[in-house]
Amino acid sequence: MPKLLLLLTCLALYCSTYAQTATLYGKVVDGQKAHVVLANITLVNTANRGAAAASTLTDSLGSFALAAPAAGTYVVQVTAIGFAKKETDPVAVTGGASIALGTITVQRESKELQNVDILSMRPTITQLADRMVINVQGTAMAAGNNAFQLLSKSPGVFVDPEGSIQLNGRGGVTVMIDGRLTYLSARDLRNLLESTPAENIKSIELITNPSAKYDAEGTSGIVNIVFKKNVLQGVNGSVYSSYSTNFKQHFYGAGTTVNYKSGRWNAFLVSDFNRRGGGREATFTRVFRTPQRTTYFDQTAIGNWSNIGPPSIRVGTDFTINQNHSVGIIGSYFTNTAEAEFLTETYIGDAPRSPSQYIDADNFNSNTIRNGIVNLHYTGKLDTAGTTLSADFDLAGVRNKGDGNFFNRFLRLADGQQTTDNLYTYTPNGFDIYSGKIDFSHPLTKTQKLEAGGRVSRVESDNDFRFYFNNNGKVPDPQRTNYFRYTESIYAAYLNWSGSLGKNTTLQAGLRAEQTHSKGESFTTGEVTERDYLNLFPSVFLQHKYSDNYNVAASYSRRLNRPNYGNLNPFRYYRDPYTWTVGNPYLRPQYTDLFNLNQTIKKLYVVQLFYQYTKDVMTELPIPDAANAVTVYTTGNVDDAYSGGLSAIIPVKLAKKWDTRNTAQLSYSKFTTFQGTEQLVNEQLFYYVQSAHTVLLPKAFRVEATFLYRGPAASGLYQQKALHRIDLAFNKSFAKKKWELALNITDLTKGWRYRWAANYGGNINEFDQYMRWRTLGLTLRYNFSKGLKAELKQRSGPDELNRL
């Protein structure tokens, strides 16, 4: 609290010194009087046209406010993607009074294909002070893909087979949709993104150093997926059908997006029906060492899974009360049933390639999920100076009902003696989430703005996991059955200030406080784990424009990752007689300090230097039971991790209609922990190269190719070997762009293979898995639209879903 009071006092004193500066405010709309959001507003002194005196962005209502640093004559320049540049008449500033510029109307740019701007050929990348914005709307990679595939191709983004995301080689990434966190487990997040057509996405924002306004969750930053907005009056939308194959399985899908705008009402419906799936071919190699003996474990595995269910539905409506206030409601419902099989063959012996025992283990699992979310929201502009207020309330319910059959056959190779062991699990579980937040923004002067807000959330989780012997009827196994309940409450508040320190320098500073109280209770063992902790999360951003061709931004923030609810449940998740995963109720949050230095050259090239220090790193830990040749996987805390390096984005135009975007990264990572009294160190120099090419051909035909190479990497106790992939996309529009046909080929050379290894205390744990990334997909889409431009505010679900 003393730190918070000191910050508030300093901000107040600083703000008072600028109280006499003049504020220019207004609103930007298009030709149909719809708000233009995130338009660039630049204040230029007519006496010095070469430099900007101040700049800002329009808010969600198209409004802006900015200050002249001194008396003089100025013009306001308005630029926005898709609109022609607009400049106001000169305005004389002589004192500290506010100056109303009224409504500024900008007109959309209309270009024929043969005159298309080269930036529309590929995802346009914009580097801001705290984030990188990748505009994917209209690219061939977006056409025919889903959101999960699109995200995995974004520069610096790595997605593992379970759906966990790394950003610039670092884990602990939080995912948002339309600026709102979507707390799903990695696997459920993958299901959500796979059910979302990429054509519905406008841009992907990589927020490597979030400000205090954002939740502190996510030690490596935030990935924000921004959906397209409805832009037409009346009824418009699209219908699609798709087919894909990984050359072992076949999948299909269909869906529709419908938008409706009439007067003050704005509504949408998104529905998706798909049969999705995947599989893997894997080998697992382990060596267990004790003073008495060494055991060798060799396993091959084949996995197949698919899910199908009723269409997922997402509907919403906004009502504009007047030009300053709007309210709305969003609802979504998703359900499907997943069927999976995991078939393994294992050989165990005391010498390499000399097994004494063979185990045939076949696992068959089924799970039905139901997920419903409701969001109520309000957005308002409180005065002409640009003061805004927004509020959200979310209610979510998630229910899972699953079961599994495990059939194990043991064969002693010396004499052919055979035994069997059959098992059964029943795993019903569910979550209820309640969340509310409020955000307030107020311009203090023409160059300064104060933001404040708060958030309260509550999570209640119930997990009744039952395990049975099933050799002669179901007999409960008390050692592997567990009934677990978890509750968590988070109370958060933040204060964020931004302003100009001169003609070309801006500063943003913020402080966020989060109080967390959690309770995990195992009714099976009687074990109760409670935690209550308060943390402060500062953030600072300093940006300086040296010239129109060179801009530098430095930033710092502190972040955390809380354990997800499943990792806290001490239930044993069974895979085979020698492998299982167990939860860790003592798992602690991890904390990270992030430092970034971004340089933008000629508004095209981006170079980023970064460093992060993480304490109490959460990572998967393989725990060997050498005496029984068993490996137990759990999520635990290693001591520390360090990571630093640089990355660069270099777009190059090779020909008039051949454009490339190239990304490279070089970094060093180091993880340390102790096993008993021995310190274990895992370190690696990491490099990453991606080159995306777009070629425009005659008759609205477009080709994109992405080449990706990812070098060896370190993560926790594991070392990962290099992997690579080539993706191709072909897109053809016809009938005046009403129809679109897209063909996508991913991982053409089958190089996206996961090979991990850990070696500690002489115990070796290696696995080599190919997750059937190589796919061929075909999508046909029909677009229908007519009318005038409008704006629709789309939102997503509550924050806590990401940690289920």
TrEMBL record:
Pfam families tied to this protein: CarboxypepD_reg, OMP_b-brl_3
Keyword set includes Transmembrane helix: no
Keywords of the record: Cell outer membrane, Membrane, Receptor, Signal
Signal peptide span: 1-21
Places the protein is found: Cell outer membrane
Any one GO MF annotation of this record: carbohydrate binding
Designated name of the protein: Outer membrane receptor proteins, mostly Fe transport
Taxon lineage: Bacteria, Pseudomonadati, Bacteroidota, Chitinophagia, Chitinophagales
